[in-house]
Design goal:
Blueprint (H helix, E strand, L loop, with lengths): L1 H30 L5 H24 L5 H27 L5 H7 L3 H14 L5 E5 L8 H6 L3 E3 H7 L15 E2 L1
Helix pairs in contact: 1-2, 1-4, 1-5, 2-3, 2-5, 3-5
The chain binds zinc ion.
Length: 176
């Protein structure tokens, strides 16, 4: 069990790191004018999809059902809406390093999908605590949640996920 937990964390870390790297590269190409905003958006959607599906699938360990696909699509739709706003901002703000930096935050989506998968694999009535650094490294949304205990079903319905809050991939919170 311990070995599996370690293997799982290693896989999820790697998956997030790869998404972060791909997002940064796409952001740099957009900053440098090598790709258009539309190409950036299409590239990000592709990277997000493969990473989010992998993160989710690794947790549930079964063939994805319609319900699973709906949850995965929920994560992708939420990210797609942010992405749309981001691409719009790129058109209105001078290009700079803020573009790859902000693109990297999308790696939080893989963490969000991992948590979705963990909810599905867990008992609905299990009580999970949200923990994290109680300091400036946490965003306001996370600070409000740190120390909160809810059942798995309540967390799932709340929509609150480490990686899915304002701090994105910078989130250092844990839920479990
Ligand atoms: Zn956080």
């Amino acid at each position: 069990m311990q070995a599996f937990t370690k293997a799982r964390e290693a896989f999820q870390d790697l998956n997030r790191r790869l998404l972060r790297e791909e997002a940064r590269k796409l952001g740099e190409r957009l900053r440098d004018g090598k790709i258009t905003p539309a190409q950036f958006q299409a590239g990000m959607e592709k990277e997000l999809k493969s990473s989010v599906v992998a993160a989710y699938r690794f947790e549930v360990k079964h063939k994805l059902t319609d319900g699973d696909l709906a949850r995965v699509n929920g994560v992708l739709e939420r990210q797609g809406a942010y992405l749309h706003g981001f691409v719009k901002a790129v058109g209105e703000t001078p290009p700079g390093d803020w573009i790859p930096a902000r693109a990297e935050l999308y790696a939080g989506a893989a963490r969000e999908a991992q948590t979705e998968g963990r909810f599905e694999a867990a008992d609905d009535t299990a009580e999970w605590l949200w923990s994290g650094p109680d300091g400036p490294e946490s965003c306001e949304e996370c600070l409000d949640l740190i120390g909160t205990t809810r059942t798995v079903a309540e967390w799932r319905d709340s929509g609150d996920r480490p990686g899915g809050m304002t701090c994105g991939s910078n989130c250092r919170c844990e839920l479990g």
